[in-house]
Amino acid sequence: MEVGQLQRRFLEYTASLFNQGLLDGQFAQLQQLQDESNPDFVLEVVSLFFEDSEKLLNDLTIAVGQHIVDFKKVDAYVHQFKGSSSSIGAQRVRNVCIAFRSFCEEQNTEACMSCLLQLKQEYSLVKDKLQNLFQLEQQIVEAGGAVPMLEY
Amino acid sequence: MGSLLRKISIKYPSFAEYWRTNRRSPQNRRIFCRDAEHGDFHCANAECLSSYYSVFVARLAIMAMLAILIGLLTLLTWHFTKVYTNKSLETLAYGLRYELLQRPILRMWNIFNSTVEITTAQVKLSEFLIKKYGKPVNQAEQVELYQAMKDVTWALFASHKALKSITMNYKNGFVQAFHRDHRSNNTFYIYSDLVNYSISGSYDMNMLSAHRGWNDQSVHNNISAIWFREPLDPLTGEKTGKAMPIPPDDLINIAGISQVPDGVASWHVAVSKYSDSPLLSAALPVLDSSKQKSIVAVVGVTTALYSVGQLMKELVEFHTGHIYLTSREGWLLSTSTDTPLLMNSTTGPKLMMAADSEDVVIRSGAKLLQKSYGSDTPANHTVHIKDAKLGNQLYYIDSFILNLRRLPMVGVIIIPRKYIMGKVDRKAKKTLVILISASLSVLVTGCVFIFILTNGVSKEMKLRAELISHLDARRKAEASSNYKSQFLANMSHELRTPMAAVIGLLDILMCDDCLTNEQYSTITQIRRCSTALLRLLNNILDLSKVESGKLVLELAEFNLEQELEGLVDMFSVQCINHKVEIFLDLSDDIPKLIQGDSGRVVQIFANLISNSIKFTTSGYIVLRGWCQNPNTSRNARQSSFAQTNSISPNKTHDENFYKKDNRLILCFEVDDTGCGIDPSKWESVFESFEQADPSTTRLHGGTGLGLCIVRTLVNQMGGEIKFVNKSGPGSLMQLYLLLRAPIDGTTEHYKLNFPEHNLTVLLALGGKMGRLIMSSWLQQHGISTYEACDWNELTSILQELFQDGSYIQNLPNHSSIAEKHNTGDTRTSTFIIVIDIVLLNLSTGIWKEQISFLDRYRGRAKFAWILNHDTSSNIKKELSKKGHLLMVNRPLYKTKMIQIIESAIRDSELQTKINPLISTVVDREMHECLEMGPIQSEGKLEGNHNTSDGFEKNSSKPFLSPYAAVNNCFVELTEVHSDKNDLRRREQDQRGTSNDIQCLTSSNTRGSQTSLQGLRILLAEDTPVLQRVATIMLEKLGAEVVAVGDGLQVVNALHFVPKPDKYQEDSPQADENPGSQTEESCFSTYDLILMDCQMPKMDGYEATKAIRRSEIGTTWHIPIVALTAHAMSSDEAKCLEVGMDAYLTKPIDRKLMVSTILSLTRRTTI
Q1: Closest C-alpha among B578, B559, B528 to residue B890
Q2: Pairing with B325, which of A17, B130, B283, B794 sits 20 to 30 Å away (CA)?
Q3: What are the residue boundaries of the HPt domain, all occurrences included (chain A) (predicted)?
């Protein structure tokens, strides 16, 4: 594929991610932080995020699945999740986290369960999208082009 | 009673008026209550009413008790008076009555006695005569006897005038009698014919017993007997007339033997034909002297009871009433009236019963007695009847018995009550009336007194009720005010958060390149509005904070001058738009460093200046400041403003105090030429939401909160603010603040030695006020000045000065300096021309010629240009080309002037060496030096961040050193690069200008901005993603980052690192040395800690506490910035409470982070 086409697709894709609200300005900032000294910064951070998130989701699933839910613990997990998701700009995940926390405060187990499900969905969605994005990036790099900078 | 009251009311009209008003008062009072409370407090009203009623009832009760008391007293008084009087009177009256009755009875008794005496005497005499003469044997003897008897009898009769008659009835039937007619005053001798009587006639006792003695018939009805009556001379007893025969027994009763059946004296009451009163007749027998007591004659004496009646009449005439005597059977014997005592019947006059008396009173009295006692009269016959009603009058009736043997008599006295008790009764009535009226008046007076006395009580109660209701109202009002403050605080916070978000988003949007110009301008507009709104919210929050007493001033060292210069810089941009000049005129005695709340101080001046700008359309705004130390008087340059009443705290008694405590009184003035404020509004404008002229709101906007906040802040700093009279337009506001000088006491002032350099400054400034201020300041420091206000003047002065190649002074006020110049070495003196860019004619192309004209003097003078913020880059370029490198932005103030002078001096020194290369290098260094010390104040004030002061100085090679152009946040970037608007960000990147924070265009300062260069930052963050992001972010900014995963590691990291070495511990001032700081920080410790709040093992709060604990006792204070996902104020408060210095929210906003870090590290590095 042509580099230019790839680049355009990349841009469009990124824009769509922003438009869907999956990502926000924080992600853009991350991208801006990436430079020659840290060529894979975004990828690094995002994969850190993935690792962290999966661990947290596992913990959360266990915690919520308990007979007697320790909401404090759940809240701490969700708080952490919220921090990391907002740091990479995964806006929708973060929003779910916020809702999740409020349910935690209410100690609403049912709502927490549904929130967890939602969280997982959102997470997998954003994961897919980001992975696609990185694939595209990879392709561009392989094709010898430069990853275009997003303008925000 | 009514009349009495009326009299009183007539006598005391005021009293009556009072009475009436009092009677009306309830209504008045109620109306008053309603008026006072406007019906807002119904309960209070009811309370008032109820209290009024309770007072009313209490009053009534007291009055009633008084009335009862007085009534009882009256009754008792009256009763005792009357009863005792009555009793004593009754006793007296009884005695009187008794006495009255006793006297007729005594008279009666006397009459009886005298009658009896006479009778007895007659009997005794008769006995003697009869015995003397013995038994008459013949007629002659008989006659002789009778004659003797007649003489004796006459003697007795004549000696007793009261006697009615004396009769002698012999046993032979011969009668001898003397009779006295009281009416005709005649005296008669009555005798019977002797012929018919035998001498031997004897009283046969047996016969008597058989025929009841002498047959009375023989006497009375002795038809054969002839009686003669002989009138006698009453005195002598001589015969005055012929004896007339009369029928026997015609005139008088002759007592016969029948009346003395047992030989004892007898009494009876008789009536006679010729007397209208009953007669008392007594009869005694004359006994024979022989052994057998035989009756030889009967003596009868009659006495009229007339005299008793007479006595009674006399008594009754003196005392009123009636007296009568009756026999026991009730026959009337004598009365005090003239009514007849006898009743004419067919059988002649008869005695009448008292009940049949013609006198009404006696009759009714007798009937009453009869009725009440009937037949069974009391044994002693003594009766006392009080208050017997006879006819229409009350009478006392008393009866006594006179117990004579054979003739018991009853005396009755009837006295009208009126006679005895009449006066007493009348007096009693009067007394009663007087008593009642007196008591009533006492009652009324008492009631009035009670009313007056209780009036105070009721008033007090009313007032108390009012007070209670007022207190209640006040409490409510206070509570509502409190609620208001709380509400405001909460709401403004809640509003501020989204506003901050809006502004942040706008910033992001403004960085977007896709925007068209219109969109961009719209967004700029929106942002401006949002900022204004945010400021308003901040104001409200401040106000509510102050009101709720939560505002705490911090105590930190800061550079007042720098802060104020930054402030003036900031506002001068606005002033330019308003065609207003703003000047800062700070006295030299103000210490450089001052302890206080810099943010709040700046806020005060920002508010005041913005206020002035708002209302000043042309002219100037001057912020003057001086230090009011006891030993520093005000500078002479202030005298031109005729300070009549400047604020001067009482320094005489505070002097020592301030000195000891390092306190400073800093006085400031904000002087403008705006519309001014009416003196009557000088106080009210300091109220919240109060503006001098409400109509200006439309024109200028604003809420009227600014001055209120200013005043509360000033007051909190122990100062005072007020308006002062000002000659000329505008307003003059004076305030003083009580701040502390730094503890170490290094209040270093500028110690400039300008006179050494033999300086002359030509101030070619457009604004008069600024020129005046600057020139006076310069003159103070021994620098001679010239002034020019427009181009023509400038050229003339220049020509004048330099026409001979050396400057010669003509101006009188500089003569001394001019002499100095003349005598001194002119070569070493420095001439500085400060030119305002506005003096050039920028509208046409003439300015280039003007610059060329000035070029001629280049060698002889140093030029410094005052630029406007909107001075186009063309001009700047042109100036740079011409070699005018000294350019500063408006406004010109002391620091800038000093810098100008310093650079000029240095320049001239270098020029003497004629080494341009070094010169540029020095310039470059100096520029950097000047670049140091950016003013941070606005960052605190508005959340934006001002990175540099307004000093702009291009190096000699602007294009070779692309970073040299120091950005000023108030110079809009478009002004420098106006032709490349669309590419502005990249342009900026290339040029490496540090970005204006407000624009947040700092996104792409790759490799160029290293604002955190040289800082060592310890990052504590457990989330790997965040840790990584933050690390990269900070590293990009040039900081050295050490990342740890939890609080424990933070503490450990700090502890493992060698403690701040001796050098730093021993000299805290070392922190202020930038050179040593940068070196120290490389190996000693961290400059700052970024701390996540929620971390495993040990969270941020705990870690901070631990760190702060370990710092106790050292002078070291490591700045800790909290990083938290919480966005609530309580978290912020908690952060600050545990000892953190600042607070950042996730996700990290880089700009905010940088500014925060810089502000914290700067504090230690300055």
Answers
A1: B578
A2: B283
A3: 38-140
